Amino acid sequence: MGSTDTRLPTLRWGIIGTGLISSWFTKDITTPRKSTSATHSIQAIGSSSLEKGNEFLTTHLPALFPKPTVYPDYKGVYADPAVDIVYIGTPHGLHKQNCLDAIAHGKHVLCEKAFTLNASEAREVLAAAKAKGVFIMEAMWTRFHPLTSSLRQALYTDRVIGDVRRTFCDFGLDKDIASLPADSRLKDPRMGAGSLLDIGIYALTWGLLTLDSEVNERPRVSATQTLRDGIDVASSFILHYPTTGRQGILTSTTEARTPGVFMRIEGSEGYITVEGPAASAPRAFTVYPKIGSASTSAEQEGKRYEFEPEGMGFYFEADAVAGSISRGEKENETMSHGETVRVLEILDVIRAQGGARFPQEEEA
């Protein structure tokens, strides 16, 4: 599958789901860039109706040529011989079946986060992909942003703030869940509704990225959730690494929007703040010296590092996927299968302690 061109790996995409995340992803990977490490084309779009699919194409990809085939269902995309890989941008509760269907047709898969509702579902999907011999990855695009690797280097190679001690990270959006219709994915528990799987997964990811080190240690988790009609509107959880003593204080909410600076990482010799339009889309981090006893944070001068992508930044993960597939890999080390399962296992613990459950889990 894919291009035989050895200069740039090429992928032909089929898109499942025509919501906001799919509009961002498709526009980003098809917009011309000054430099690129892969070539992408949209071959097919699958929606719940032909009208909705055509509206998505007209609204979000009006200049795209040649035009992709629009199907009034998902099956057409799975069966389309021109499609190498299926991007799944449907609600969380549909991910498991969408992945299994795409895999059954021999397609590679890039599935939006959260990969599935829980770790058990993820293991089932990953086992199916392994048996079929196809590539599959969770679309946690933030892990592929250049800022992320640069931040890890600053923390653990350059040690710009000494020994890392704590991370505070919040991802909040003001969604007014109560006013949404009952069938909204943000309100329907069968779709994985709640702040945790939608945005709390980013706070957790930043906690792991900034606190994990050379010590291979599973953090202890302490969590609480605020539930309204069974849906978590706020989740707060602490990661504690017993060996190093590091802590992550991580939160998500759908009742208030987080300011531009969404994370602070504290070390023995200073601290770092990370900012962006959302915790999923980092744009800069600033390194500050340790606050002295006679100083205030306002008096400290920091060194700022900016990372502004050409578009939104979804193409970083798409290019990485294209590279992996061109090399015959079945997973990508930046978002490995093991890491996907680990994250979901922690999310499962958070929900077990906080009380949020999905109907599918009660039925299992």
Care to describe what's here?
It comes from Aspergillus versicolor CBS 583.65. It is an enzyme of class 1 (oxidoreductase). Helix 4 runs parallel beside helix 5 and helix 5 runs antiparallel to helix 9. The protein is globular. It is α/β, with parallel strands linked by helices. The N terminus is likely disordered. It has 2 domains: 150 residues, Rossmann fold; 182 residues, Dihydrodipicolinate Reductase, domain 2 (2-Layer Sandwich). The strands form 2 sheets. An 8-stranded mixed beta sheet has the order 8-9-10-7-11-12-13-14, with helices on one face. The chain has a 6-stranded parallel beta sheet with strand order 3-2-1-4-5-6.
**Strand arrangement, major sheet:** 8-9-10-7-11-12-13-14
SS field, number of helical segments: 10
Taking the alpha carbons of the first and last residues, their distance comes to 36 Å
CATH architectural arrangement of the largest domain? 2-Layer Sandwich
CATH topology of the largest domain: Dihydrodipicolinate Reductase, domain 2
Per CATH, the superfamily of the largest domain is Dihydrodipicolinate Reductase, domain 2
Low-confidence stretches: 1-5, 293-297
Q: Provide the residue-averaged pLDDT.
A: 94
- The CATH class designation of the largest domain is Alpha Beta
Number of DSSP-assigned strands: 14
Q: Largest sheet at a glance?
A: 8 strands, mixed
Tell me roughly what share of residues is in helical segments: 25-40%
Molecular shape? globular
Strand/helix succession: EHEHEHEHEHEHEHEEEEEEEHHH
Q: What is the CA-atom radius of gyration, in angstroms? A: 21 Å
Assembly annotation: single chain
